[in-house]
Amino acid sequence: MSKPLPFTEASLARAIRGVERAGRFVVGVKGDGTLLIGSKPLDTASLVPEIEQDIPASKWEDQRA
């Protein structure tokens, strides 16, 4: 039997709206419902590494020249 969560979707939504009204940004939510707050929005593009184009093709890839 699983333990019920200590928060609800409605309580999280209410907390997020309060944070946004205060001029801050929610950048994440922990598993226990704790909101992670920042002063600016999170740039999600910085989380994904750029694809390197100079990687040599493997011998199994189709070579079309």
Give a verbal description of the structure.
The termini are far apart. A hairpin with a 5-residue loop joins strand 1 (25-29) and strand 2 (35-38). The protein has one helix spanning 9-21, and strands at residues 25-29, 35-38. By secondary structure, the chain is an alpha+beta fold. 0% of the residues are buried. The chain has a domain at 1-39.
Describe this protein with a few key phrases:
about 60 residues; alpha+beta
Kindly state the number of beta strands. 2
For the termini, the CA-CA separation is: 59 Å
Taking the sheet with the most strands, its summary is: 2 strands, antiparallel
Helix content: 10-25%
* Strand coverage percent: 5-15%
Q: Residue-averaged pLDDT, rounded?
A: 82
Class from secondary-structure proportions = alpha+beta
Query: What strand order characterises the main sheet?
Result: 1-2
What would you report as the Rg, rounded to the nearest angstrom?
A: 21 Å
Which residues form runs of ≥5 with pLDDT under 50? none
Principal-axis shape: elongated
Number of helical regions: 1
Secondary-structure element order, N to C? HEE
Provide a concise account of the structure shown.
The protein has 1 helix and 2 strands. It is of the alpha+beta class and 65 residues long.
Secondary structure: elements and pairs:
Blueprint (H helix, E strand, L loop, with lengths): L8 H13 L3 E5 L5 E4 L27
Antiparallel strand pairs: 1-2
